[in-house]
Amino acid sequence: MASARQVNIAIIGAGGVGKCFLSQLESLAARRQNQKLVLTYIATSKKAVYSDAYSPIALDSVVSTLSSSSQAPLALPKLVDYLAASGTKTVLVDNTSSQDIADAYPSFLRRGISIVTPNKKAFSGSYKLWQDIFAAKEEGGSLLYHEASCGAGLPVISTIKDLVETGDEVTKIEGVFSGTMSFLFNSFAPTSGSGGGKWSAEVAKAKELGYTEPDPRDDLNGLDVARKLTILARYAGLEVESPTSFPVQSLIPKQLESVASGDEFLARLPEFDAEMEEVKAEAQKEGKVVRFVGSIDVASKQVKVGLEKFDLSHPIAALKGSDNIISFYTKRYGSNPLIIQGAGAGGDVTAMGVTSDLLKVLAQL
């Protein structure tokens, strides 16, 4: 029997998603018969584990090995050289949201190192970085997948790529792209009409349950949704310059934009409950509910993020929990959109998106 082909894996990031990915990688490596997956480098922002001989790092104890390591991570240019010099096909898994690492993608790809990542910043940064990344991928003959950058484990990126590459024409994309915003509005303005607490109380509850960033303003400013829309708009053929180049409605009251901490923000948010109450009541008068959505109109090149009112029967109104929903309107699908719905946040489902991308890469190496 031919010996299994080796593929080296390098990982940056071992936080929430990173830890979930490591456990999925461990079971994947154990099941893989025809390929030997070898972890040769792992790093956080402060620590790293690697050796000049590219010795395998045991997956079953990697978290403790990393936490007790005294090695510092390699600077990114050095890491590119280190991975490229192994003489073995290598996949870099970037489980961070670092702009610095995203900016280095062209250097890795040009040297034949493939990348899988949930990092939105690489694909929603400047349009020039987007172009550089895909040019470097072609030049280096490397592979690149980032399903989890736009809806955790939901097949959003693969769907739009399939639609476009098979010659369909995407005319409009609309949906709820944030698990946090989904949870907040499903609680604040339920379709039943009754119930739904004060806005500030719902934000505090979402934070307590772990649905928001440590500082909820990082969700309420709408930028996370804007990044996802930037990525999808580019795949639909629009040259969107950046996530700040189109209208994005922030739900942070002007007076609270510059308060020192997330805790101070939450403490003062009740002062502004009346404004959100008014928005909810206005929708109720029309027999509708308010939701935080993103939309892309390809023909008019309009991209926007913000509050919209929906009939109670609309799929966007009827979402539950922290689910995302993304509707693709295309020439082929006509007036009934192709709809993707499900959990759009959470460590396990995001890591699943990364692991399934890794499988796609492994199938082609």
From TrEMBL:
Alphabetized Gene3D superfamilies for the sequence: Dihydrodipicolinate Reductase, domain 2 (3.30.360.10), NAD(P)-binding Rossmann-like Domain (3.40.50.720)
Catalytic reaction list: L-homoserine + NADP(+) = L-aspartate 4-semialdehyde + NADPH + H(+)
Pfam families documented for this protein: Homoserine_dh, NAD_binding_3
The keyword NADP is assigned to this record: yes
EC number: 1.1.1.3
Keywords: Amino-acid biosynthesis, Methionine biosynthesis, NADP, Oxidoreductase, Threonine biosynthesis
Necessary cofactors: a metal cation
Binding-site positions, NADP(+): 13-18
Reported function: Catalyzes the conversion of L-aspartate-beta-semialdehyde (L-Asa) to L-homoserine (L-Hse), the third step in the biosynthesis of amino acids that derive from aspartate (the aspartate family of amino acids), including methioinine and threonine, the latter of which is a precursor to isoleucine; production of homoserine leads to a branch-point in the pathway as it can either be O-phosphorylated for processing to threonine, or O-acylated for processing to methionine.
Entry's family note: Belongs to the homoserine dehydrogenase family.
Full protein name: Homoserine dehydrogenase
Record organism: Neurospora hispaniola
